[in-house]
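Batch job 17 of 40 flagged for manual review because the log was empty.
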Amino acid sequence: MDMLPVGTRYQRTHTITQAEINRFAVISGDTNPIHIDPVVAATSRFGRTIAHGMLLYGHIRAALRILAPQAVQRTQTLSFTNPVFADDQVTIEVEVIERQETTIRCAVSVTRQDRKMACSGETELEIRA
């Protein structure tokens, strides 16, 4: 199967808005004030609201779906190294780094506009015909 050789990449940019963070809080049930309350968040070590890590993962998963729509995700590891704030523009990137007969392994990342890595990791996808 020649689809998705090593080095295949998908990348897109997206601006994370406070409205998006607020919607994710409602959907996920994670209404921690660090995400949705600017007054409380201003007193935190971040100084303002931050996006949920799983909101960032959702953007990664969407990118994987575009890269390999026929695939099923088997594993995912993520490290969160820098916060994403409301109104940050992020780049979501996925790249095939290993290919087997029915699986691919991808590097995944979300990078802020200041080029600081917000999260990164690897995922394994099973390719289904």
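Reviewer: the log was empty due to a logging misconfiguration, but the result itself is present. Residues 31 and 81 are 21 Å apart (CA to CA). Unflagging and moving on to job 18.
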